[in-house]
Amino acid sequence: MKTHLVKTHVVVSAVIFVGALVATEAAAQVNAMSGKSKVTITKREMIPVGDVEGHVLVLTEAGGANENTGKWAFMEGATTSGYSVMDLIRGNGTHAGYFILSKDNSLAVSKLTGTVKTVLSPEGKPLTSYSGEWKWVKCTGLFEGCTGQGVYQGTVIADKEILAEYRGFLAQ
């Protein structure tokens, strides 16, 4: 009788533990998301470093609108803002900054780190692209306390225009 009682207690404890695990997993909802944004550079400052030819620091500010490319309508039509610093030698180097989405009193701020690559077209025009990783650093409103990360890539499509694409996840 005592052995049967102990076995029953162990089984009930295991069921409660598994139930708590499932409830915790359901509470931490994870959503895959992807999107793109055509942004216009509104400020750009280039500072020559002076150590080697073509070495500059570039500070930029840009803005645009978010468009979803995934199944989940994450921040569709949100205003996008981007702030970045690039350390470039002849158009190639590192890129770091912030990409911010805001809509209806909700804010999602991601920190970016990556690289910039510039090659010349057959006509001799520079073709510049960006790629790297991002991570959520602050979310408010509907996305309060979010976590997540992903990857991004971007292409300069005109003197002051960039098409940026991202994908990753957001967990709450």
Walkthrough of the structure:
With 172 residues, the protein is α+β, with helices and mostly antiparallel strands. The model is unreliable at 2-27 (pLDDT under 50). β7 (149-158) and β8 form a beta hairpin. The protein has one domain: AOC barrel-like, CATH 2.40.350.10. It has one helix at residues 2-27, and strands at 30-48, 55-68, 79-89, 92-103, 106-120, 126-140, 149-158, 161-171. An 8-stranded antiparallel barrel has the order 1-2-3-4-5-6-7-8. The longest helix has 26 residues, at 2-27. It starts with a helix and ends with a strand.
**Which structural class do the helices and strands define?**
alpha+beta
Distance from first to last alpha carbon: 46 Å
Largest sheet: 8 strands, antiparallel, barrel
| Low-confidence spans | 2-27
Q: What is the overall shape?
A: elongated
Which CATH C-level class is it? Mainly Beta
**What's the helix count?**
1
Mean residue pLDDT: 86
Question: SSE order, as H and E?
Answer: HEEEEEEEE
Radius of gyration: 23 Å
Strand content: over 45%
- Name of the CATH architecture: Beta Barrel
Spatial strand order of the main sheet: 1-2-3-4-5-6-7-8
> At the third CATH level, what is the topology name?
AOC barrel-like
The tally of strands reads 8
Structural domain tally: 1
Question: What's the gist of this structure?
Answer:
The chain has one helix spanning 2-27, and strands at residues 30-48, 55-68, 79-89, 92-103, 106-120, 126-140, 149-158, 161-171. Helix content is 15%, strand content 62%. It is of the alpha+beta class.
